[in-house]
Design brief:
alpha+beta, three-stranded antiparallel beta sheet, 11 strands, 29% helix
Amino acid sequence: MGRHALPAAADDRRSAPAPSPSPSPAAAPRSRGRRAASGPALARSSYVEHEQPARVVALHPVRSAAATTPLAGATKAGAAKAGAAKAGAATSGAAFLSRTGSLRAERALDPRHVRRAANAKRAALILAPALAFTSALTLSMPANAATPEPTAPRLTTTSEQLQTYTVAHDVEIPVTSTDSMTATTTTTVVSYPTLVTRFGVTTAQAESAISAALSAGGDRATVLETALQYLGDPYVEGGASHAGIDCSGLTMVAYQAVGIQLVHYVPTQDAAATTIPDSEAKPGDMVVYDNEDHVGLYLGDGLVLQAPHPGEVVDIVPMYSAAHHFARLLPAGS
């Protein structure tokens, strides 16, 4: 702060009493920190002392556990007095608390702080069980939770929306053969481990169509009998085995049984065959859909044996309503 002259009457400080005459100038020391009121007016400062001095925090010495034990049963006022007494009697070599530690120690002795801490602890003990119970209800019982009703197991499995298939196990199909030379009729039973039907085709319909197709005999029966061995095998694009097979792979392995080699590709198989009208179709002919991305084997009675698409298995379905045509590789009487 800068210094400036003030008249003597404007100084709000009380003038110090004039020093008594002393034989020695050293006997009357001047007060430190303030100029004497009797000094020159130009040398006095405009400094005004604060009415409330700054807060002074005492650094108390660290007390051991043995020293603090007697204070446990004493009153708050007695503890404060004892702490002050111990702080005054501390030796010069004792450790002192930091300012934060000293403030914490003073707060611990403050009755208002002790009361607030006790109220907070009491409220926590009351609210904790209620909060825990509410959280448990929220986690274990969501608003939209519903107890599912148990459903009985069914033989029909949903593969995709509005498309179901039924699996029949251990199917035995009678096959009748007639020897034209001896006029002998023989009936044998052909067993299949699984028979998979879809789109409303019943097991009885499938068994009837298979029995009629195999009873005709010849190369057509051989083609269908070979393809039927893949019923229930999964669809795998580019596959031609029981581990996985696709639509053109099924027709390829079926015609290999009668010595006809086909390329594993629908358009090429269609080009190798002869297109025939629907009215002339016989079991064993190919059913090619006009976009040439799918092919199956005609089973007779309006049923088709096919390897449908990924996620499905080889099954028996009714004739699709999509555009299609029949393609023949075997003569009609074979």
